[in-house]
Amino acid sequence: PGACSCAGEGEIMRILVTGAAGNVASMTLPALEERYDLRLTDRCYPMRRTRAPFHLADVTDRATMARLMTNIDTVIHLAVAGYRAQWASIWPSNIVGLHNVLLAASTAGCRRVLFISSIQVVDGYPPGMTVPTTAPPRPINPYGISKVIGETMAHHFALQGAMSVFS
C-alpha cells in the first residue's frame, strides 16, 4: 500500500535524489536529468540550477521523507555526513536518515533504493590488498562504520518485501 507506483511501459522513471546538493550528485545529476523525471532534496540548496524540482529537507525528518516518496519509483540516496564528520552528525544523518529513507520508500511502495556505500567499509585492510567479497568489513573511522551499518540496514529492508536495495 502507498502512493508510489512503478514506471510502466513507455513511462519515464521517477527518481528521488537525496543529498542533491552534494559532490556526488553534482557529477551525477546532469546525466540523469536527460533521461528521468527527477525530484531533488537536500538540507541546503545546490550550487547549480537544475530543471528538476528541488525540496529543502533533511533526511532526519521522517514525515517529510514520506511526503517526498509520493509517486517515486526509485530513490538514489546520496545524503550523508561526510567522511571527516564526527559521530554527533554521522549518527543522525547516516543512520537515522537512511532508516527514514528506507522506511518511507518501502511504505510508499517504491521499487528500489540505491544506497551509496564507500570503500571506507574495508579501509582497514592493507593498502593494495584485493579484499575478497567474503571478507568482513574493516572500517577505520565513524564514517566507514556508518556505511557498514547502512549496508546491513539496506540488506534488512531488501529482505522484507518487494523493494530491492542496491549498495
What does the model show?
The protein has helices spanning 23-33, 62-68, 87-108, 142-160; strands at residues 14-18, 37-42, 54-56, 74-77, 112-115, 164-166. The protein has 167 residues and is of the alpha/beta class. Strand 4 (74-77), helix 3 (87-108) and strand 5 form a beta-alpha-beta unit. It is globular and about 45 Å long.
List the keywords:
4 helices; alpha/beta; 6 strands; six-stranded parallel β-sheet
Q: Regions with pLDDT < 50 over 5+ consecutive residues?
A: 1-5
First-residue to last-residue Cα separation: 25 Å
User: In this structure, how is the largest beta sheet organized?
Assistant: 6 strands, parallel
Helix and strand element order: EHEEHEHEHE
Q: Please identify the structural class as seen in this structure.
A: alpha/beta
Can you count the helices? 4
Strand content: 5-15%
* Rg (C-alpha, Å): 16 Å
Percent in helix: 25-40%
